[in-house]
Amino acid sequence: MRRASDASIAIARRLASRVVARSAACVVAAAYLLPASAAASGTCADGREPIYLTFDTGSQSQAMLIHDVLKKYDVHATFFLANEKTVRGDWSLDPSWTAYWKMLASEGHAFGTHTFDHVYFRGDVEGDSGSHEVKVRPQFGARAGQAMSWNAAQYCTELDRVAQRFQGLTGQRLDALWRAPGGKTSPRLIAFASSCGYRHFGWSAAGFLGDELPSDKYPNAVLLERALHNLKSGDIVMAHLGIWSRKIQLAPILDPLIAGLVARGHCFATLREYPRERGLEPTRGHAS
Fold it and tell me: pTM for this structure?
C-alpha cells in the first residue's frame, strides 16, 4: 500500500471538519432519496454495478458495530473467516461466536474461507520429489509460526476446515469464496484452491479502507474522505472486524460511508453476485 505524502495528509486533515458535516448530510439524503432495500437489492437504480463490502475476521472488537450498521441500511456483505484470537480471549470460530455467525447467516450475508489458521502464503517451491508445492506459515493454531511446504491437497484441507466449522456452528454451507491472508497469492496457489472449488477474491485499490494503518497518521476522517472520493461501482471494499494494531478503530466510518455511497446512487451486493466472466483478481494492497 503506497503511503500518502505528508502534504496530502495535511490537506486531508483540513478537510476533516467538512467530512463530519458531509457525512451527516449523506445520512439524511440516504434516508429520503432511497429506501434501505434499494441499497441491498444488488441492482442499482441507474444500472451501475454494485459495490461489494467485505470483512475479514480479526480481533472481533468491531463485530457487533459492523453488524448493526449493515442491518440499519439493509446491506449485505461478504465475510472471510479464520479462527483468530479475539478481544474476548477466545477465538473467532469458537462455539462462543455461534450466535453471531448464525445471526449474520440468517440475515443473508455471504461467507468465505480465510484459511482456518490464517495461513500466509510465502512463495512457490518444488517439493523433494519434484512435486509442485507452496511455502506457507500459519499465524495461529498448533503450527503457528512454522514454515511448511504444502501440496494442493494440504492447502484444500486448510480451506475446508473453515467450511466444516462454519457448518457446524450455523448449520449452513460456506460459499465457495476464498481470500488469502494478506491477499498474497500466486497462479499456483490460485490453481490449488480452484481444484477444490474455491474462487479467490482480493480487493480493489480504492477498496482498501485502511484499518491496518496507524490512526495517528491516518485518522478516520481522512480515510472516510478518501473512500467517499475514490470508491466506484464494481469495487470490492476490504476491512476487518477489528484490528489489534490500530489505536482508534476505523469501523465507525462504516455508517457515514454507506450513507454517502447510497446517496450517490450506489447499491451493494455480496460476492456471490460478482460477475463470473471477470477473470482478473482485484488489486491486492496490504502486507500483513
Answer: 0.84
